[in-house]
Amino acid sequence: MHARFYGKGFSRWLDTALKRLPVREAPFTFAVAAELSRISLPQADFGDVLLVATASILDLMLVTSDSQLLACNWLRTLSNK
Questions:
Q1: Which DSSP state fits 22?
Q2: CA-CA distance, 78 to 8, in Å (whole number)?
Q3: What CA–CA distance (Å, rounded) separates 50 from 56?
Q4: Rounded CA separation 27/31 (Å)
Q5: pTM > 0.85
Q6: Are 40 and 19 in contact (CB under 8 A)?
Q7: C-alpha distance from residue 48 to each of 61, 63, 70, 74 (Å)
Q8: Distance between CA atoms of 33 and 40, rounded to whole angstroms?
Q9: Which of 4, 23, 45, 62 has the highest CB neighbour count under 10 A?
Q10: Neighbouring C-beta atoms of residue 35, cutoff 10 Å
Q11: Residue 1's pLDDT is what?
Q12: Are residues 69 and 61 in contact, defined by beta-carbon separation less than 8 angstroms?
């Protein structure tokens, strides 16, 4: 990783990016936590399960190249391949 991403350089980059992009944070809520226990993936990685639970609860489309997630017909996905 380039040195510009560390320290104040990264902080400035992040501030600029957040001002330019219409980004909203997805909070970790009790509803997301409850959804975690209902999700079953063949090769469950906690990060994937957390993303899926958050997308499901917030009714978001998950953009991914993960074939396992793209195969979930109950999940709204968009391939970025």
A1: -
A2: 34
A3: 10
A4: 10
A5: no
A6: no
A7: 14, 12, 12, 15
A8: 14
A9: 62
A10: 18
A11: 47
A12: no
Please say if the pLDDT value at position 65 is more than 60. yes
Query: 50 burial class (0-12, 13-18, 19+ CB within 10 angstroms)?
Result: middle
- 78 φ/ψ angles, rounded to the nearest 5 degrees: -140, 125
| Residue 52 main-chain phi, psi, to 5 deg | -65, -45
| Amino acid code (one letter) for 70 | L
Q: Which value, in Å, is the radius of gyration of the alpha carbons in the chain?
A: 16
Helix (H, G, I), strand (E, B) or coil at 20: helix
Cα three-residue angle 65-71-74, rounded to 5 degrees: 115
Residue 5 identity: F
| The token pair that represents 39 in the structure block | 């999700």
pLDDT at 35: 96
pLDDT digits over 16-60, tens only? 888 998 888 889 999 999 999 999 888 878 999 999 999 999 999
